[in-house]
Amino acid sequence: MHVESLWRYPVKSLGGEPLETATFTDDGVEGDRLVHVQGPRGVLTGRTRYGLLTIPASTGPDGPLVGGHPWDSWEAHALVLPHGGRLTRYTGPERFDVLNVLVATDGQVEAAGVDVRRLRPNILIGGVEPGEEDGWPGHALVIGDVVIGMFQKRARCVVTTIDPDTGTQDLDVHRRIRHEFGGVLCLDSWVIRPGLVNVGDPVEVVPTDELPDRIGGWIVGRPYAV
Length: 226
Prior knowledge:
Number of helices: 3
Strand order of the largest sheet: 2-1-12-11-15-14-13-17
């Protein structure tokens, strides 16, 4: 097995940023979800604002960029204002839905027949047979010096139905995930031992007794502290 792909999401619910090398810290991938879209009643995400998922985000020398503009610039705010919110920086642990890393495998993505970008993983593991990841909760990925614990399969939501390029919706994607995979795909994970991970690095799966210190963010009743 090997690292097939790596991603970071500098702004929650905006487009993902493919990486060749990622620094995994105790707080997930360095630079991940540092900014979110704040509406009048709280955080806005692609669950209700599908168009956000099509807005490109990346990382610049001074932080997240939105459409190539610094996140706190007028040009960046102008891209999200039509979706009902404004860009706000928040780096607390609540910014992650469940845990701070999401792991996908090529076998399961191929079996689901979906564009992997709809699943929004941080790391895609290649060379995995379909269904093999079902036995991975309670295990860890060892990638060089980095150890990533895997806690549970991820329950999937309506975000999987949105085309990340056009923002159009295909409800059959989520129906297929529900009917063929019990509504779960990928693995809620966290960093046990930090370090650098590169695309192409070999991966080993080993048992672990480690458990995450904290489970759940705003989606499970722990709202942002803003």
